[in-house]
Protein 1
Amino acid sequence: MSYGDPNNPYPYGQTPQPSQPPPPPQQPPTAPGYTYGYGYPQQQPYSGYGYGYPGGATMPAQSMPGLLMTARVFLFIISATQILAGVAWLYVGAFVSDVTDDATSVVPMKSVGDAGHALAGLLIFFGLVSLAFAALSITLGVKFGRGGQGIRVTTVVYGALGTLVGFVFLIVALDNGPAAAVLYTLLWVGFGAVITAAPMVASGTAWFARPRY
């Protein structure tokens, strides 16, 4: 009976088995927006203006708060009335100036001519101021979409001054004014209060302080 080669280090005729290669490393499950390299997850770069949204998605557009939209509409309404008032003041001033010139040509009185021209100049001045305020109202309303803290502060000051003036006129109208004047000044005060408060509430402050890209 043969017991194999006595010089064989493996008894009983056993031969070494070739070593098996280690199994490949298990890949972790993929997730949206991530790639895996060198065993570590790597986040895909954002494209465009994703700003934190995976896959390069765009940030949803932020809408203007409702109170600010109301104040914006009020500014446009006020600008329309200011334009009408400014045109009316300019027309009356020009009319007074023409009447004064005709009167002084018939009756050459220096005092009448000076008074008439002074009144015409005052009316024209009121007309120009009204048109300037109309331009400011339109500018503020338009800038609500992209304006920052400067537009916010200017709107608050503009609305507060308008509310104060309207409140003074309301007191006068309540004393001895017609009902139409009282209604007009009430609307004036209400519009001014909304324009003043809209940029000061939390939603308005956040709107004007939001990042712009």
Note: The CA atoms of residues 147 and 203 lie 15 Å apart.
Protein 2
Amino acid sequence: MARARRGQGELEGQVLGALREAGGPVTAAWVQERLGGDLAYTTVVTILTRLLAKDVVARERQGRAFLWTPTADVARLAALRMRRLLDGERDREAVLASFVTALPPGDEQVLRALLETAGPGRVNSRNTSHTDHGGTED
């Protein structure tokens, strides 16, 4: 029976997760074995190279091989994917509005709290009309 195809980004997340569990620098062969060995070695190296380009892993040469170490977690990888999708859209405001209105109440509160703690320098100044600056409304 054929195995179901992995979703977009799922393999990157699995490789990064394996690296984070390693406890130190490891080879691509170690990652391949950790993921069950059903992946070709070249596939694992390709994924590691993509993660390197995204700056979520580092590598150092040891003899003829590279040792790989995570520099970020799976949450950062997911955030990068979200950002890449957003960057590909023409109407960012519409995409963000649609995203926010579809959030469950608990997630919406988490997002609001994160935006508040990010501070004014992290929030686009043209979208601050909803903020109370202590002045009067016209």
Note: Helices lie at 10-22, 28-34, 41-53, 74-87, 92-101, 105-118.
Protein 3
Amino acid sequence: MPDALHTSLKSKPSGTTEKGMERVHAILSVARAIFATEGYAGLSMRKVASQAGISLSNVQHYYQSKDLLIEAVLLMTMNTFQEKLDHITAAKGKLSRIEQLNSAIDMFLEELNDPLTHGLFFELWALAARNAFASTLMDTMILRERKAIYKLIRGMHPDVSDDEYMLRAVLIVAQVEGLMLFRYHKHRQKTEMQAVHAALKKNIIQLATTA
């Protein structure tokens, strides 16, 4: 988490103390919850300051605008995902490549089960359709996900080209992202979702291993 937090401060010119990092964590945690539950319109710098128990000027010291704050929330979320993926891929010798891929997909599906993570991405998807800034953030997120999956599946079958594996990574990310809409339909049963997740993992393994 510390690395993810530091990356989220890329727009802040000066260094940040340990106490400052604690404030950053509080600011981003509150902003994430508000954005995920109330959307872009419901998020304000003043509301974040109030719920985080700090002054508005303190929030603005780290993030000068609402858009920069949302960008920081997304950066923190994506970097947290990346840290988890790095931990999985670092287990070379302990896990086979298939096991690594399974673990990565399990991680993504577990994150989608978190209402705040789902709400964050759902709101960002909706906002991206009408907001250029959000669209750019969405493009960044999807590109990073594709690269991460590509690195996990590239070369699993010797007859599959790198270009083909990148296309398969695009398809895998599209399927995982699509579950955000499917997963939170109020009438879906737990057993049905388990079956969907199992089918998704089977399909991903096929994409990764067959010519």
Note: The longest helix spans residues 18-42.
